[in-house]
Amino acid sequence: MKEFCHYLEKGANALGLNLSPEQTGLLTAHAQQLQLWNAKMNLTAIKDIRLVAYKHFVDALAAAQFLERSSRIMDIGSGAGFPAVPMKVICPNLDVTMVDAVKKKVSFLNHVVRTLKLGNIKALHARVEDLARDSEHFQMYDTVTARGFADLGKFAELAGPMLAPGGRIYALKGANALEEISSELKNKFQITHRSYTLPFVEAQRVVVILQSPSD
Questions:
Q1: Which of 16, 29, 162, 212 lies 20 to 30 Å from 67, alpha-carbon distance?
Q2: How confident is the model at residue 214 (pLDDT cuts 50, 70, 90)?
Q3: Helices 21-38 and 103-116: angle between axes, nearest 10 degrees
């Protein structure tokens, strides 16, 4: 995985992030498991290790820079672990719950958590609509994240019940994300956004941040 390490460190440096050897090792272990499991099941359509490094790992690291250092996070539609696992690696104090409706993906996520020996992060096989009726999850999260999960209105509708008062939704999206901000969303949330260019692949990214009322 030397090639992956090269691209990961190159991308992180371009973001101004100085990964520790331990962090690099954990992210590389995640990438290695992704390669192994992806040969057996469809976790990602991206096979080129350079693009895996930039479009999955570096993208998640870039978005993590905009996080408030919240204590409890739910990541919806975690898939192969993005952005949740890289966020946890560089922000180890986070308490992360990953949610995916595909059982095989949840098996992979829990395998990665065990392999990397990460604490305070787990994956649930569930539909987020069902978790909204569960007292363990309803209004229990400071932050809800998702990458490319659904249009902004649908994501906010699903994520909203999970947020504690004053909590924030972080939607990781492409260049046209701001077109999804409706007047209805503006009435419900305080909305800001952060834009960045993904290094070396010149892809435009936007993190839309929706903050719920604190009362």
A1: 29
A2: confident
A3: 150
Query: Burial of 136 by CB count in 10 Å (0-12 exposed, 13-18 middle, 19+ buried)?
Result: exposed
Look up the pTM and report it: 0.95
- For residue range 180-196, list pLDDT tens digits in order: 999 999 999 999 999 99
DSSP character for 215? -
Number of domains in the chain: 1
Range of the domain at 104: 2-211
Cα maximum dimension of the chain: 50
Task: Identify the burial level of 51 via C-beta atoms within 10 angstroms of its C-beta, where 0-12 means exposed, 13-18 middle and 19 or more buried.
Answer: middle
CA 47 to each of CA 118, 155, 201, 210: distance values in angstroms, whole numbers, following the listed order:
25, 27, 15, 33
Alpha-helix residue ranges (DSSP H) falling in the chain:
2-14, 21-38, 49-51, 59-64, 84-90, 103-116, 128-131, 152-159, 183-188
Alpha-carbon gap, residue 210 to 177, rounded angstroms: 13
CATH of the domain at 183: 3.40.50.150
138, two tokens: 């309803």
Entry field: residues in the chain: 215
Q: What is the torsion angle, in degrees rounded to the nearest 10, for the CA atoms of residue 212, residue 83, residue 149 and residue 105?
A: -130
